[in-house]
């Protein structure tokens, strides 16, 4: 795309006074960079993905409240992680992390393991242990 054709649509980025760096061609046909405040299709896709993430966060919160899961899935979703990413952050096998999703198993975890999760979620061990989902 040409430098003067870089999209400047109102979107999620423009609301936060953030601009995205894109590559474009100048009047001589050479590649250069240009700043964009947004592009409507990209803004729609971003909004849709954030909506899905918020639904997953709410579902994880409801599962915790219902006693179906530990707080780990909630904080995992809140941090926009998936099981493989969380497992790599805490240095455990995926099956082991998934096992910690069970409330009965979570209740037996020691502080050393809980601190690994807390560090991955950027919260305190106490916040993880005493999460209420209010």
Stated plainly, the CATH topology of the largest domain is called: 434 Repressor (Amino-terminal Domain)
Q: How many helical elements?
A: 8
pLDDT averaged over residues? 90
Strand order in the largest sheet: 1-2
How large a portion of the residues is in β-strands, by DSSP E?
Answer: 5-15%
Cα shape: elongated
Instruction: Sketch the major β-sheet.
Output: 2 strands, antiparallel
- Between the first and last Cα atoms, what is the distance in angstroms? 48 Å
Which helices and strands, and how do they pair?
Elements: H1 12-15, E1 20-25, E2 31-36, H2 40-65, H3 72-78, H4 83-90, H5 94-99, H6 103-106, H7 111-121, H8 125-129
Antiparallel strand pairs: 1-2
Helix pairs in contact: 2-3
Description:
- Helix content is 53%, strand content 9%.
- With 134 residues, it is mainly alpha-helical.
- The chain folds into two domains: 3-38, no CATH class; 42-129, 434 Repressor (Amino-terminal Domain), CATH 1.10.260.
- The chain has a two-stranded antiparallel sheet.
- Strand 1 (20-25) and strand 2 form a beta hairpin.
- The model has no long low-confidence stretch (mean pLDDT 90).
